[in-house]
Design a protein that fits this description.
6-stranded parallel beta sheet; Rossmann fold; 23 helices; about 20% strand; OB fold (Dihydrolipoamide Acetyltransferase, E2P)
Length: about 650
């Protein structure tokens, strides 16, 4: 019988090839697979054969006629009709699916799912899905259906993942409950078994909402427990050697900078350098808006530690960001101290005063000696194990965590309760606010003409697209869609070098493409939202965001912060063809608002039914469904986690 620990290799229909693909992304058991939640859902409205507007996704119940297959030079077309209970008819059309001629059972009822289109003034469904109804299903009323849409995994398309998931859910025994019954009752949470089944295949919107709430609550509860445990570890390991540094060296460094630090940066540097002189190890979180100058603060802290005779370890979540941090700190501290990069691809001597790397550095933490300070950039992107590893470095170093993500008060008082928080609330002198515009379909050509002029003036352009997500919803190959956009842009910009960057590339390939863009060899970089955090290209002053309505406002804010970093005016153009009043109002709010915290709160307040929180947060703490902007749930889970820990300690 299938259970949570069953290896995926033992599941029916999953051969060696699919198993290897899943294993590459850490899916080795049924539990891993079940926690690969849908990215979104497509609602099919239950209508008659004559119902639904053009473009609507619908489900129609009726009898399907015999399929006729027509051959042309390079393709085959399969045609049939669906007749509903009222005798209304709609055309069904497929391409290159001749097996359907033998697959349709006559005199049987089907649910037919598809998008209503029109051809030669006749309504039709193109490439619809067919579901033959059992006698039990025929007795049930016609209702809307919710189709889960998963992220593609390598060459596994969303449809394949959905079919495998349906088989697993159908054969899954009742799942063991993971939360105490007292918590379920107090907070009105459904069982884990019901939540897992309904988040994958909800019967209606209410069941989906209940599933999201339960899994969100549990995810935040586990996060609170993890951080309470980390808090205890930090308390036990807080004693350290005070670092007496050369104040003159730091003052000279700050005085000779080619720019004037902001008051917020100077205040942060003062707080950190004061912390490291104490016998209790620093535990501080530095939060600053995109472009607020966190790297300078980190460099000043590392210089002070060097002046006290100790080394600094700096961790970044990706090789790209680690390399960029190393280059920026090397430039800032040139002539003062040494800095080197250590990743799985760059393994150095470990002799420099400042070591910058990815989590690969944690694997060799026992070899690292004389560490006085650890700086973690975007620390929420590191796993619990990585964060626990930091507490085991001996002797205990000071710890500075950095993030560009806004930290609401409720988050500071719960998840980050054991950290002192410093906020950089000023932009560096001369940094101009990015000008943001909402561009409709009628203005696209004008925008492209303006971009052509800007490129001639040596500006570079990011074009960010959610095409991978769109292609997942269409069950197409994601990378093909990105390449098609690149080809389309080539027609608009014939004499411009255009390149593509996406998360499925190997790390070295990503670095090479970014370097070509940074060097000016590429003028337009078409990318997925992977560029939102940390990437710094001084000459990139224009950010184009296609289908902007598909991004969370916090994500859009991070993307907007990637341009105008070299002192020139930055521009962010939101391309959206949506005619929804709600969507236009949401994007217009973004155009006018520059405060990241307010933007995140707006999305939280205006969240749509059935929308998964985690998909809008760009991997904050690697949450899948939980939302760190849900003040009530944060407070509930924090109180519950503290009570749980207290009871556990007593027993």
């Amino acid at each position: 019988m299938t259970n949570l620990n069953t290896p995926v290799t033992e599941l029916f229909g999953i051969g060696d090839k699919i198993a290897k693909i899943l294993q590459k992304v850490g899916i080795t058991t049924v539990k891993n697979l079940l926690e690969n939640y849908p990215r979104t859902y497509r609602q099919y409205r239950a209508v008659s054969a004559s119902g639904g507007e053009i473009g609507d996704w619908v489900v129609i119940r009726g009898a399907v006629s015999k399929v006729n297959s027509r051959h042309t030079a390079h393709t085959t077309t399969q045609l049939a009709t669906l007749t509903d209970k009222n005798g209304k008819v709609i055309i069904l059309r497929w391409f290159n699916m001749p097996f359907l001629v033998r697959s349709i059972t006559q005199n049987c009822q089907y649910n037919v799912l598809g998008q209503v289109t029109e051809f030669a003034n006749r309504r039709q469904l193109v490439s619809p899905q067919l579901h033959k109804l059992s006698n039990l299903e025929l007795d049930k009323p016609e209702t809307d259906l919710y189709l889960p849409i998963y992220r593609a995994i390598n060459t596994l398309k969303p449809g394949i993942i959905r079919h495998k998931m349906a088989d697993i859910i159908a054969n899954l025994p009742t799942l063991t409950e993971t939360l105490p019954s007292s918590i379920l009752q107090k907070h009105n949470l459904i069982s884990r078994d019901a939540a897992i089944r309904n988040i994958h295949f909800p019967n209606n919107m209410e069941s989906l909402e209940l599933a999201i709430r339960r899994l969100s609550w549990e995810e935040l509860f586990e996060l609170q427990l993890d951080n309470l445990i980390l808090s205890e570890l930090h308390k036990k390991n807080r004693k350290t050697t005070p670092l007496n540094y050369d104040h003159q060296l730091l003052n000279t460094f700050l005085k000779n900078l080619p720019f004037t630090p902001t008051n917020a940066q100077l205040k942060a540097i003062k707080q950190i350098t004061n912390d490291i002189t104490k016998s209790t190890a620093m535990r501080r979180l530095l939060q600053g808006e995109v472009g607020s100058g966190k790297t300078l603060v980190a460099a000043a802290a590392a210089l002070s530690v060097y002046a006290a005779g100790k080394k600094t370890l700096i961790l970044a979540p990706t090789t790209i960001l680690a390399e960029q941090l190393c280059n920026n700190i090397t430039e800032l501290l040139k002539g003062h101290t040494t800095c080197e990069l250590y990743t799985s691809q760059h393994k150095q001597t470990l002799t420099s005063d400042i070591l910058v790397g990815t989590h690969a550095l944690l694997r060799i933490k026992d070899k690292l000696k004389n560490i006085g300070l650890v700086i973690v950039d975007e620390q929420h992107r590191f796993g619990v194990e990585d964060r626990e590893a930091l507490t085991k470095i001996s002797p205990t170093p000071h710890l500075l965590m950095m993030t560009a993500t806004p930290i609401p008060r409720s988050l500071a008082m719960t998840v980050f309760h054991y950290l002192d928080i410093t906020r950089l609330d000023e932009l560096p002198q001369g940094r101009l606010p990015v000008k943001t515009y909402l561009v409709g379909a009628d203005k696209r050509k004008d925008a492209y003409h303006w971009i052509q002029t800007a490129i001639k003036k040596h500006n570079q352009v990011f074009i960010v697209t959610p095409l991978i997500e769109i292609s997942e919803e269409k069950e197409e190959t994601p990378l093909k869609s990105v390449k098609e956009l690149s080809n389309t842009l080539t027609n608009y910009f014939p004499n411009v070098t255009i390149d593509i960057l996406h998360g499925k590339m190997k790390e070295q390939e990503k670095i090479a493409k970014l370097q070509a863009f940074r060097n000016g060899a590429v003028q337009i970089l078409v990318a997925t939202s992977m560029i939102e955090v940390g990437i710094d290209i001084p000459n990139a002053n224009i950010m184009i965001i296609e289908n902007a309505e598909r991004f969370g406002l916090a994500q859009l804010h991070q993307l907007r912060g990637r341009v105008g970093r070299g002192g020139e005016q930055g521009y962010c153009l939101l391309f959206s063809e949506s005619k929804s009043d709600k969507t236009r109002a949401r994007l217009s709010y973004f155009v006018a608002e520059t405060n990241g915290e307010k933007l995140a709160e707006y999305d939280m307040t205006n969240r749509g039914p059935g929308e998964l929180y985690g998909t809008q947060q760009s991997g904050f703490f690697n949450l899948k469904v939980g939302n760190l902007w849900d003040k009530q749930m944060l407070e509930e889970t924090y109180a519950a986690a503290k009570l749980y820990m207290t009871k556990k300690t007593r027993t």
